[in-house]
Amino acid sequence: MNRLRRVLQMWARMNWVLTIVVLLIITIGVLFIYSATYARDEASVRMLYQKQINWELAGLAAYFIVALFDY
Fold first, then answer.
1. CA separation for the pair 70, 48 (Å, rounded)
2. How far is 30 from 53, CA to CA, in rounded Å?
3. pLDDT tens per residue across span 15-57
4. Residues 47, 40: contact at Cβ < 8 Å?
């Protein structure tokens, strides 16, 4: 129970405004890349937005890991 309380306290300390802004920027970036490449015939160009999503998920994971540490 004590461990659950610590996790909830860590989530409460997070800067949620920053997190929402980051998620919004990520979404807009993926939409821009998708809209710029969806009409191309080459598969490597069409899949650029999927590559961007993979990198953004890795970045979000790193963000949440670092944000949960109490400095």
1. 36
2. 7
3. 889 889 999 999 999 999 988 888 777 877 778 888 999 999 9
4. no
The four Cα atoms 1, 20, 60, 38 give a dihedral, to 10 degrees, of: 140
CA 14 – CA 8 distance, rounded (Å): 10
User: Pick the residue with more confidence: 31 or 6?
Assistant: 31
| SS3 call for 42 | coil
The pLDDT score that the predictor gives to residue 57 is 94
Greatest CA separation found in the chain? 55
CB 55 within 8 A of CB 30: no
